[in-house]
Design brief:
Layout (H helix, E strand, L loop, with lengths): L1 H17 L19 E2 L2 H8 L4 E4 L3 H5 L7 E2 L5 H8 L7 E5 L3 H12 L5 E6 L10
Parallel strand pairs: 1-5, 2-3, 2-4, 4-5
Length: 135
């Protein structure tokens, strides 16, 4: 009986270790799935912008007005969970998200995935953007 109990406890520990939370939770290495997004480089984002991707700036209005990536639409990170379903109707649309430094884009990417969007890509912040910026 004690041997069986020890075996069960070991199996439970093994299973629990497989469920631990890692620093990259929510970030997908492959194509994004519900509940996951993919963190990509700005070079990858630039290539995807030439395809039919939606560029989403999640900064505040004054930040957006001071300069943004051409073609980007703005929905603040605070409002993305509420406004995205009204603005971005296709949940399979490729969405490239950025903010100022990368913190808000991460939160917005998670919110979009939680809302059922499946092709969400976070490419960080505009502070390090070397591409074109318009006002």
């Amino acid at each position: 009986m004690k041997r069986n109990m020890a075996t069960v406890l070991i199996l439970i520990l093994v299973l629990l270790c497989g469920c631990s939370v890692s620093a990259g939770e929510g970030v997908s290495e492959g194509p994004a799935q519900i509940g996951e997004y993919k963190l990509i480089s700005q070079e990858e984002a630039l290539l995807m912008m030439n395809e039919d991707a939606l560029i989403l700036d999640v900064r505040e209005e004054d930040e957006y007005d001071s300069g943004h990536i051409p073609g980007a639409i703005r929905i603040s990170a605070v409002d993305v969970a509420v406004l995205a379903p009204e603005t971005i109707l296709d949940k399979e649309q490729v969405i490239l998200i950025y903010c100022k430094s990368g913190k808000r884009s991460e939160a917005a990417a998670r919110a979009l995935c939680d809302a059922g969007y499946v092709n969400v890509y976070d490419f960080g912040g505009i502070l390090s953007w070397e591409g074109e910026i318009v006002q």
